[in-house]
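Give me the fold.
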Amino acid sequence: MEFRRLGRSGLNISEISYGNWLTHGSQVEEEQAQACIKAALDAGITTFDTADVYANTAAESVLGRGLKGQRRESLEIFTKVFWPTGPGGPNDKGLGRKHIMESAHASLKRLGTDYVDLYQAHRFDRTVPLEETFGAFADLVHQGKVLYIGVSEWTAEQITQGAALARELKIPFVSNQPQYNMLWRVIEPQVVPASEREGLSQIVWSPIAQGVLTGKYKPGQAPPAGSRATDENGARMIERFLNDDVLTRVAKLESLAADAGLSMAQLAVAWVLQNPNVASAIVGASRPEQVHENVKAAGVKLEADLLAAVDEALDGVIERDPTLTRSP
C-alpha cells in the first residue's frame, strides 16, 4: 500500500480506502462483511469510509465491530452527515446544527471511537446558512471529536465558500468526495481546480463505475444475478452506464488492461489515482477476494500512451459536464 497526504493537511491516508456504502448492513451478511474488513486490513488499507445513512446507520455499526481491537492511531475513520436517518423526523436530516451535533455523537457511538479523522458534509444544504453548518463543524473540531472536515459532491463555488469560512474559523477543511472514474469526469473542469486552489484533495467513490468498468456487464445481455445493477439502490446509480454504446466501448478496455498486466478493475482504480488531486480511491467489496484484487492498483503508474488509448476507446461516452455536480 502507498499513502498520500489529504489536501494541504498533515494527514496521510491509504491510496486505496475501504467503503461500505451498498454492502454492510444490507447486501452482505455480517460474517462476510467482517471478512472483507479483515481483508482490507491485511492488504494494508488504513482508511475506512462510511456514513450514517448507509443501511440507515447499520453500516457504521458493522464497521465499528470490524475495527474493534485495532490500534486506533493506525486507522483513519471517515463518516458523513446530511441524509435522513432514524424515523425521519423534521430534524433527522440536513446540515443544521442540531442534526450535525446529534448525528456526530451517534456515529461515534456506533463506530466505537472517541473521534473520527474526517467528518464530511454528505451534500450541500441550501436550506441552512453555511455559517451555521461550519460553526457546528468547528465546535466538533475544538471538542476533539473530529480532526478534519470534508464534503461530498460540492460544486467549485460551494467549495470556495466553505474554504473561506473554514479559514475564518481556523478549522482544517481538507477534502471533497465526488464520483469519479473513466466514464464520469465532471469534477475535472471546475471542482479539481477549485480544490487545488483551496488545498483540498479528492477522495473518490465509484472508481469502477459501480462495476461497469470491470467488464462484467455485457452489451445486449441482462445484468448478472446478484450484481449491483439488480439491487434497488445500486440500480439507480448504475443505470446511466447500462446501455450498449457504453458497454461496447468499455469492452475495448479489456485488451488495454491485459497488455498492462492488469485486470479491468485494477486499470480503473489505477486510472483515478493518476490524477494528482486524488488522494484515495474508495473500493467496496462483497467478497474478500475483491479487496485483494483492487489493492493491486496502489502504486501503479500508467503510461501516457495507455491513458490516451483509454480516452480513445471511451470517446463519445465520457461525461464531463460540470453542472452535473449538484445537491438536492
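The beta strands are 3-5, 12-14, 16-19, 47-49, 76-81, 116-121, 146-151, 173-176, 201-204, 278-283.
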